[in-house]
Design goal:
Layout: E1 3-6, H1 13-22, E2 31-34, H2 45-54, E3 59-61, H3 65-74, H4 87-91, H5 95-103, E4 109-111, E5 116-118, H6 129-143, H7 148-154, H8 169-181, E6 185-187, E7 208-210, E8 223-226, E9 241-243, E10 253-258, E11 263-268
Parallel strand pairs: 1-2, 2-3, 5-8, 8-9
Antiparallel strand pairs: 1-10, 4-5, 6-7, 10-11
Helix pairs in contact: 6-8
The structure holds manganese (II) ion (MN).
Manganese (II) ion binds near residues 37, 64 and 228.
């Protein structure tokens, strides 16, 4: 019985299956958590999503920005770009099942038995873990309601970068989406920057810090698992921040982490 986490698959389904084989993943005994961005830009998003729908009991996910973007495309809010490689997925007769599945996926998962918190991009330094869980839950409540298209229409809003000045429930929900699925760097007041995406070693902007250097400490020793930030290549220099996007889509590799043994496994891009 093991607990695994895998970073951004982004439609790299063949590598995903090879990595499951490498960790000897057993759907009857083990649990796998995906850090979001399961689909988008890679070659096999249709196969990936079909697999996730089939194995919902053993594979849990949080939503990433690409997953939400796909929902926006399905709702007619955004147009798919050629580089999204969503053509097969959008033409599938199972599309309503995929939309339904994605709308039900959370933006944050807490595993209290391991003191682990999983989200696609991270946890806002302006939040306690309790506030983070509440805000993620508020977003999920909208995503599973009939108002969800309205939220998807409004979510492309870089103005919602500061939780402390977000004055309405919808602005707080959009901030939550921005923090949980898009954040990398924050300003010193904890508000979000949306443009810088290089590794911290290469950043020369002193007004910005990685979110994981700013996140509020809590009484419980918490391990933060996240994806989204491929240029980190897994390196946070902090042992309780597990960065799992190692750029498989960009020709690097897909990474799995086993919580019980603090062990990493990788599968190179084919
Ligand atoms: Mn992402």
């Amino acid at each position: 019985m093991a607990t695994y986490f895998i970073g951004d698959v982004q439609g790299c389904y063949d590598e995903f299956l090879l990595l499951l084989k490498k960790i000897k993943f057993d759907h009857r005994r083990d649990t796998l958590y995906l850090a979001g961005d399961m689909i988008g830009r890679g070659p096999k998003s249709l196969e990936m999503l079909s697999y996730l729908v089939q194995y919902q009991d053993s594979i849990k996910t949080v939503l990433g920005n690409h997953d939400l973007h796909f929902l926006a495309i399905c709702s007619g809010i955004k147009q798919a770009k050629e580089s999204d490689l969503f053509t097969a997925l959008l033409a599938s007769s199972d599309l309503p099942i995929f939309i339904d599945y994605l709308r039900k996926q959370p933006l944050l998962i807490s595993l209290s038995q391991h003191n682990i918190v999983l989200s696609h991009a991270g946890i806002s330094p302006q939040w306690t873990l309790g506030v983070a869980a509440k805000m993620a839950n508020d977003v999920s409540n909208i995503l599973t309601s009939s108002d969800y298209v309205q939220l998807l229409t409004q979510m492309y809003d870089n103005e919602c970068s500061n939780f402390l000045t977000a004055s309405t429930p919808i602005h707080r929900a959009i901030f939550a989406i921005n923090a949980l699925t898009r954040m990398r760097y924050c300003y010193h007041d904890g508000s979000l920057n949306f443009t810088q995406n290089c590794a911290p070693e290469l950043s020369n902007d002193s007004s910005l810090r990685p979110w994981f250097d700013m996140v509020l400490s809590c009484n419980q020793p918490t391990t933060y698992v996240f994806g989204h930030w491929a240029s980190l290549m897994g390196e946070t220099h902090r042992k309780n921040f597990i960065a799992l996007d190692t750029g498989c889509l960009w020709g690097n590799h897909l990474t799995a982490w086993c919580a019980e043994y603090n062990q990493y496994f990788v599968q190179k891009r084919l």
